[in-house]
Design brief:
Strand content: 25-35%
Keywords: ATP-binding, Nucleotide-binding, Transport
GO molecular function, one term: ATP binding
Oligomer: single chain
Number of helices: 9
Helix content: 25-40%
Bound molecules: adenosine-5'-triphosphate
Order of helices and strands: EEEHEEEHHHHEHEHEEHHEEEEEEEE
Pfam families: ABC_tran
InterPro entries: AAA+_ATPase, ABC_SmlMolc_Importer, ABC_transporter-like_ATP-bd, ABC_transporter-like_CS, Mo/tungstate-bd_C_term_dom, P-loop_NTPase
CATH topology of the largest domain: Rossmann fold
Protein name: Iron(III) transport system ATP-binding protein
Length: about 350
């Protein structure tokens, strides 16, 4: 559906995207994820035709759009600052694209009503000015405005970043449901790992303008291809080599080993453990209630290991409790000195 092939984007003498290639399938929710400044927005703007590319090709539905102006690419766009027109009513904001396309008034009215309904904007709110809506409502207007022209592709750049934490979570679900309902191929830019993991069919993790890994949320989280991806997504402990003496299946020779917080079990010292487990005695240095899980910091032979224990575990919550940390070797992610999975 969308193919970016060896796309290069430079600002002056600085190359921000060196040879960027990407393929997105029809109907997919595809996310560009990476730290600030890694080039996510630049990649999206190049795809949208808002930033010129130095070389390379961009294909949409098999058609070369590399030199096509943005408004000819049939894209819907939602940006971080919404880019709504403050002096227009909500109704006129949503209908703007159709008006520009000179569609009949009757059709615009019907389409605006349907789009508003799909994002829970009421008839009464349609008559208001943009500034009379909350941030969350404005966000939904921006989405309705992008969807009203029934684009085949929807580009979103950090569309939820101005919302508070609770609303963000709700909007994630709503966006995802809308995306399915409209069947629109979506490219989503975020630096928020949770957002990317919970919404995407596939994720491209970017690092300094290059794609470090493309995969399903499970792939990038549980089978991170590089040390950088492993550290960027989720929380990890680096495991000291001396913890791994018994774990004969794990690679050696300078390899670096990581385990996610939730893959570290905490249990009473000297209890039964599954055969082959990595077991290290330690002392609880900190334990804190976090709602669905308890966060631990365990002092193990001079190293601090963190664990997130889900469920109603209360046995070892006191500072100073003598415990064992237990890790299944298959949950350990190992990388060579060059940061490649081994
Ligand atoms: N118009 C511009 N002129 C010069 N440099 C730019 C321009 N736009 C972006 N850059 C630079 O290009 C790099 C990538 O920026 P980009 O906005 O694509 O990153 P990002 O991953 O989207 O970051 P963020 O999450 O902070 O938005 C940054 O180093 C940025 O400073």
């Amino acid at each position: 559906m969308i193919s970016m092939q060896n796309v290069v984007v430079s600002y002056g003498s600085t190359t921000v995207l060196p040879e960027f290639s990407l393929d997105v399938k029809e109907g997919e929710f595809f996310t560009l994820l990476g730290p600030s400044g890694c080039g996510k927005t630049t990649a999206l703007r190049a795809l949208a035709g808002l930033t010129p590319v130095t070389s390379g090709k961009i294909l949409v539905g098999g058609k070369d759009v590399t030199r096509l102006p943005s408004d000819k690419r049939q894209l819907g766009m939602v940006f971080q600052n919404y880019a709504l027109f403050p002096s227009m009513s909500v109704r006129d904001n949503i209908g703007f694209g159709l008006k520009v396309a000179k569609r009949p008034q009757k059709e615009i009215e019907r389409a605006v009503r349907e789009a508003a309904e799909s994002v829970d904007i009421t008839e009464e709110q349609l008559g208001r000015g943009i500034s009379e809506l909350s941030g969350g409502q404005q966000q939904r207007v921006a989405i309705a405005r992008a969807l009203v022209t029934r684009p085949k592709i929807l580009l979103m750049d950090e569309p939820l970043s101005n919302l508070d934490a609770k609303l963000r979570k709700r909007m994630r679900e709503q966006l995802k449901l809308l995306q399915r309902e409209f069947g629109v191929t979506s490219i989503y830019v975020t630096h928020d790992q949770d957002e990317a993991l919970s919404m995407s069919d596939r994720i491209a993790v970017l690092d300094k303008g290059r794609i470090a890994q493309v995969g399903t949320p499970e792939d990038v989280y549980s089978r991170s291809r590089t040390e950088g991806v492993c550290q960027f997504i989720g929380d990890v402990n680096r495991l000291p080599g001396e913890f791994l003496k018994g774990a004969t299946t794990l690679p050696r020779d300078g390899a670096r080993h990581y385990v996610r917080f939730e893959d570290v079990a905490v249990q009473a010292r000297g209890g039964e453990t599954p055969p082959g487990s990595i077991v290290v005695p330690g002392t609880v240095a900190y334990s804190g209630f976090n709602g669905p899980y308890r966060a631990y910091m365990i002092e193990c032979a001079g190293h601090k290991i963190r664990a997130s224990v889900y469920g109603t575990d209360r046995d070892h919550e006191h500072t100073g409790s003598a415990v064992d940390i237990v890790i299944r070797p298959e949950r350990v992610m190992s990388y060579t000195e060059d940061g490649v999975r081994c």
